[in-house]
Amino acid sequence: MIKSNRTKLRRIKAEIDSIDYNNPQESQINDMHQNDSISLNCEDDVATNTINAAYDSTSIFFDVKSPTLVIDTESNNPFQGIDCSDEDDQLLSVETEPNINEMLADWAVSCKIPFNSMNQLLSILKKHKCFSKLPKDSRTLLATPQSPNLKYIRNVDPGLYHHFGLAIGIVQCLQDSSVNDSVIQIAIGIDGLPLTKSSNSQLWPILAFIMNTDNSKQTVFPVGIYHGNSKPKDSDDFIYDFVMEARELSDNGIIINNLKMFVSIKVICCDVSARCFVLKTKYHSGFNSCSRCIIEGEYINNRVCFPYSNIYSAPRTDEDYRNCKNEEYHNSPNPSIITNLPNFDITKSFILDYMHLTNLGVMRKLLSFWVLKGPSNVRLSGKKISELTELLLKLRPFVIQNFVENLEKFKIFFDGSLQNFDYF
What highest taxon heads this organism's lineage (predicted)? Predict the structure, then answer.
């Protein structure tokens, strides 16, 4: 009879250590339940100890009351044959754990978090031991380059200009589409827009898209962008890189998918002020500012107008512009360098588009007269404006986007809103 717990434990350990786990054929196989344990029962001093044993895929059971060792070799071990060393556990955790730096960076970019707010958040998180390895500055978190690439940035008085490249944009757009012609027709848009309401900071982008691609969704890509506190002083300096590259692509072509293709600037779309700036001509308030014919305007009701007349006015031609034949139409003794574009007709390629003429031009002017500053016999009363607003609200369920809610807020209407109002 075993006299003490220590003696019993030593004998149990010695017998377990003596088992040949690779040859358990002498052991008796029993089906056991989930709890694989060793139970020690004593008649004199009651002491129960439970030892969980798991050696590879073999479970071992020992009952003090029975001299038989039970080895369960049929235990269903799903991890049999897998090396679960500490090194593998560390590699597995590194691969599966989400990177908090990347998650914070994606969140900051998608939610447009300012740098100072992000810095404050990082300083708070770093106080906790779990986030002690986070960077102190948001620029490190977002991997902001310490020195910008100034290769394609140059001074354009009074600001800076960055040229993205026309060829690069064409290649990227034609990765998922193709052109069923040897000539790639390009449409260009040039305009200025303010960046903030509290300063004169503004952008002048040169945008482009391919007109004759088979892709139903035409992708607009930037060719170049100017930034400054006022528009560029010299339009030739502003569009120089674009004109030179477009001329090179038109003369020598570009290789796309082992095919040589040529580039043609088909149209340029601008509002009136941007067109006059690029072409160096009189602005729309000038008497000789018409870009289609040589008609001379008249000053009526404190504004320059071009009233309908039965007298035929001769149209302007590309040759007349290049030779600066009409001095009253030009602001410069020399024409714009845009004339260096091959097969480009100045009078026809600068298109008169529906958006600028009808929506942003005529419709906005009419709303201005009807709501704000028209004469008393034209301006609508407050009651009529409220009735029109109610009618517009009734149309809301039938308009997907660009909905006009309040007629008095027409100043902030953009092209889509004015177009919908024009339709209704």
Answer: Eukaryota
- Give me the sign of the Cα torsion angle 405, 407, 412, 413: positive
pLDDT digits (tens, 9 = 90+) for 244-273: 999 999 999 999 888 899 999 999 999 888
Strands 221-228 and 153-156: unpaired
Whole-number Å distance between alpha carbons of 139 and 122: 11
pLDDT digits (tens, 9 = 90+) for 13-52: 677 766 654 444 444 444 444 444 444 444 444 444 443 4
Q: Is 73 exposed, middle or buried (0-12, 13-18, 19+ CB in 10 A)?
A: middle
C-alpha span between 57 and 73 (Å, rounded)? 6
Q: Which of 169, 216, 215 is nearest to 189 (CA)?
A: 169
Rounded to whole angstroms, the Cα distance separating 183 from 375 reads 53
Size of the chain, expressed as the number of residues it contains: 424
Distance CA 416, CA 386 (A): 22
